Every structure is written in C-alpha cells, then in structure tokens.
Amino acid sequence: MSRVAAVTVAGADFAADLSGALFWERERLLVVSDLHLEKGSSFAMRGVLLPPYDTVATLDRLAAVIRRFDPRTVIALGDSFHDRDAHNRLCARDREALSGLQAGRRWIWISGNHDPAPPSGLGGLVATEWEIGGIVFRHEPTGAFGEIAGHLHPKARVSARGRSMERRCFASDGARMVMPAFGAFAGGLSIRNGAFARIFSADFTAHVLGHSRLHAIAASRCC
Fold first, then answer.
1. pTM of the predicted model, to two decimals?
2. Furthest-apart CA pair in the chain: how many Å?
3. What are the CA-CA distances from residue 78 to residues 4, 106, 148, 155 (Å)?
4. I need a labelling partner for 188 at 20 to 30 A (CA). Which of 164, 175, 181, 207 fits?
5. What is the CB-side half-sphere exposure of residue 203 using CA atoms within 13 A?
6. What is the distance between the terminal CA atoms of the chain, rounded to a whole angstrom?
7. Can you tell me the distance from the alpha carbon of 104 to that of 100, in angstroms, rounded to the nearest whole number?
8. How far is it, in rounded angstroms, from Cα 169 to Cα 160?
9. pLDDT tens across 169-193, in order?
C-alpha cells in the first residue's frame, strides 16, 4: 500500500506522508511540524521521568523521510525545540545528525510558541513565516486561505466494528491545512475541539495516519 496520499491546499498539490510529513514535489519542499526536540529532558528537569530517546527517535524518522523524498528545502513549522534552552541540551551525536540532514539543502526554522527564537547556531534560516508560490507556512493557524500551519497537533478518534482508534492526522478543507505533530513525544488535540471550528468554517477532512496508509475521513464522522 502507498504510504502517501494526494492532498490539495489552495490549488497546490502535496503528498501527505504516513510519517506526518508533507511533500510538495513541484518545489521539492518537505514540511514537518512540532518536532519538540528534547521534550524528554525538559520533563526530567521537572521531575517527570520519560525515556530519554525522543530526540534521536524523531531525528531518525526525519532522516528516513528525507532519504525518501530528497527535498531541496525543508521547513520546520515551529516548536522544533520543546523549550528555549532545548538546543543547548542536544548531545553531540544529535547535533551531528541534524547537521547531516541539513547538508546540501535549504533549511528553514519557523519560530513557535515553545521556541520563539530558534537558535541560528544550528544552521538554517529562522523566520516567523515563509511564503512560497502563494502558500504561507507558519506555526499558529489563523484560518487564512493558502495557509499550512502546525501548533494544534491534530488527532482524530475513529470507531469501526465496535473498536476505536486515536491517531494523529492532517486536517484540511482544501483551502488550508493544520499538520500533525512529528515529534516522538508530542501529544495531540482532538479535531472536534473548538479550536478547529475557528479555523475551518465548514466540515473538513481528517487524513488519519493509520498503520500502513492514510485514511481520509470527514471530521464530522470522528468521535
């Protein structure tokens, strides 16, 4: 089964990947959102012990997506780092891995609410938003036409055959999109939450990340 699904945003054709990444072939552009690197170490400092492998797991998944699509440009849609000091807690191995992913391509860090000033010392450009071909990439969604954003970590609960599953998803009505969180430890917000109603004026589609493919389901059908 194909691990990608064709989706259109404001007339532009994208491939939504099962990993939660988005690829725009015309621009050779890969988009990921809400990596939340070093979330585990951030929680550990507050006495909440999580397995300390979120950064390496997230970077490994990102490396696999980059190998498949070989993008010319990568945009990270904000909250790439879980807090303002997270980049300083990256170990040497993870810094080297990130540098390797950036080699030979343009890399754009969009600032988020967790990382309003992403570190320029880790390579790439830093911006509050980025526009390419009429599509605007930013962290927090505004509901504007042609917008691709993150921040909300959309997830959908679907019931079938007496069972239910909850999965991350892309949320889109064809005019705008909210991307799922890519980070290994990132949580999620139900697409039935009022935050999505303020972005989408009518029913929209949840492109749900299943076990082996994406499932396009009307948000109104989700629990």
1. 0.94
2. 51
3. 23, 16, 12, 18
4. 175
5. 8
6. 26
7. 9
8. 17
9. 999 999 999 999 999 988 899 999 9
